């Protein structure tokens, strides 16, 4: 009987963890490297909570997306996390916000926000 209780407890804990993860949305990993972001474009849904994990593969960078109020500095070996929940549909342009060399101006990023339906 104790074993059945333990199995039930594990199931409940697993279900709670899954629900918490679903409520938090999903995670998108973005790599910054002279002179690009990979991926350079992402698509998310309006009202969806998304965690962006930005990692530098070489030097200090920053991901700045003014329309989504994102300004995340990232150093090599120290990923930055930003959570967004877009409240409007459209394309939001981003760029590197920390001078990283001669190709810095070409480091662009786009977030496409679509209807949640």
Strand order of the largest sheet: 3-9-8-5-6
> What is the number of independent domains?
1
**Count of DSSP-assigned helices:** 1
Helix content: 10-25%
Detailed description of the structure:
By secondary structure, the chain is α+β, with helices and mostly antiparallel strands. It has one domain: Cupredoxins -  blue copper proteins (Immunoglobulin-like). Helix content is 19%, strand content 44%. It is built from one helix and nine strands, in the order αβββββββββ. The chain has one helix spanning 2-23; strands at residues 26-33, 36-38, 41-45, 50-56, 61-65, 70-74, 80-84, 90-96, 108-114. The strands form two sheets. Strands 3-9-8-5-6 form a five-stranded mixed β-sheet, with no helix packed on it. Strands 2-1-4-7 form a four-stranded mixed β-sheet, with no helix packed on it. The termini are far apart. Residues 1-23 have low confidence and may be disordered.
Question: What is the structure about, briefly put?
Answer:
With 117 residues, the chain is α+β, with helices and mostly antiparallel strands. The protein has a five-stranded mixed β-sheet, with no helix packed on it. Strands 2-1-4-7 form a four-stranded mixed β-sheet, with no helix packed on it.
């Amino acid at each position: 009987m104790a074993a059945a209780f333990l199995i039930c407890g594990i199931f409940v804990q697993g279900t709670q963890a899954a629900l918490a993860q679903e409520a938090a949305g999903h995670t998108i990993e973005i790599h910054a490297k002279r002179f690009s972001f990979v991926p350079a474009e992402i698509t998310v849904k309006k009202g969806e909570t998304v965690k962006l994990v930005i990692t530098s593969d070489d030097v200090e960078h920053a991901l700045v997306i003014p329309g989504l109020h994102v300004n995340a500095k990232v150093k090599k070996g120290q990923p930055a996390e930003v959570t967004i929940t877009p409240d409007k549909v459209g394309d939001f342009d981003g760029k590197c916000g920390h001078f990283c060399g001669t190709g810095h101006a070409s480091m662009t990023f786009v977030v496409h926000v679509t209807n949640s339906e």
